[in-house]
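Section 5.1 Outputs to date
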Amino acid sequence: MHATLPLLEVTAFPAIRRRTVETLQVNLGYKCNQSCVHCHVNAGPTRTESMSRETLADVLAYLETAPIRTLRTLDITGGAPELNPHFRELVTRARSLGLQVMDRCNLTILEAPGHEDLASFLAAQRVEIVASLPCYLEDNVDRQRGKGVFVTSIRALRRLNALGYGCEGSDLGLSLVYNPQGPVLPPEQTRLEQDYRRHLGEQFGILFNRLYTLANMPIQRFGSTLVTKGQFRDYMQLLRDAHREENLDAVMCRSLLSVDWQGTVYDCDFNQMLGLPLRVAGRPRVRIRELARRDPAVLEGNPIAVKDHCFGCTAGQGSSCGGALA
């Protein structure tokens, strides 16, 4: 695995600052039942990192004492976050606090042994599902995610539809996530969403609420692949050339906090994977347990740690955990 942070250190990315925290994104660990080519987490079946019960308690303390007036969403991610033994407790407690909960689900986990009732649990808790489906064509999905993943994903989506996810009149939100096949920018989100709807609807009868298009970030597994193929420099130039200043106002790091499996806080999930923690008052590392005891306004106006990979969020139509920015 090639380290890409040394290639991203020198940057002309504009300085930006934080606003009010509206979303807490919690990474429950890097273990996953898949190993995707585009994965910026380098997640997979052999990873052992997993949030402990003690660290989960710190996260819950933050949720209970944090800016309830402004904090709206708990965004749960991984790996496959559902593999963490405390996943359901976190979901249940957050929902009891009135927070919207999002589960970044790879779909195939819904058929994994021991998780047969997972879809029903998520529906009962009214959890929004953000599901990875990097293409609507079987060959492309299996090339990125492994043989048989597309067929399993389609079965999972049909099961979610049967529970009411993505259906008209239902409050069970189902979003799909697209990633490009290689070192290119995503197509225009609205147009691609129409293609997804048409193909998945006509071929499989599948419904969903929205499509998010995400740019591949030049870090971890995808970044290492670019280095191996001699494409890293060209991809970075593509991102820089496509930078749009107006996207800076909507980048997710302005209103999101990212927490890793050990409780360290970052400006975003990408910075987490590069080991670039959030800094407050010059401190090089801050834990979520510390923020639970402090006035949430302490983060407002705080500088965001930026490197060259940040151009991945502002290139073209922009990219974030919530899809295109423009």
